[in-house]
Amino acid sequence: METPSGFAKTARVELDCQRCGACCVNAKENEAEGRTDYVSVEPSAKLLLRRDLVRKYVVMDDMGHPHLRLASDGRCLALRGVLFKKVSCELYHHRPKACRTVQPGDGDCLRARKERGMTDDDR
Known about the structure:
4 helices; two-stranded antiparallel sheet; globular; two-stranded antiparallel ribbon; 22% helix; 6 strands
């Protein structure tokens, strides 16, 4: 459940996306398979209308489908800051649907937090 303050409350903790960033890192399963096409960009995404952002943040896969570009450490190239401290997204207002669907405290959020070693103390 998202609150007006931008936090999500779970049964145990309040989660703050701007102090996390775990969902913006390639999943361990993808890394193990060598996949670097972590977040697909849908054809109707606002992002694709911005050539400057496409050049910097989008890469095409082998099939010619757009995906968000990843840095060598597996983080989305648009992610700024330090994981679990303070992060922001350079594409926030233009981010693709896949990014918009992850919500604080949902299954994808909790999986990403766990994969990156976050605990309830890392809110």
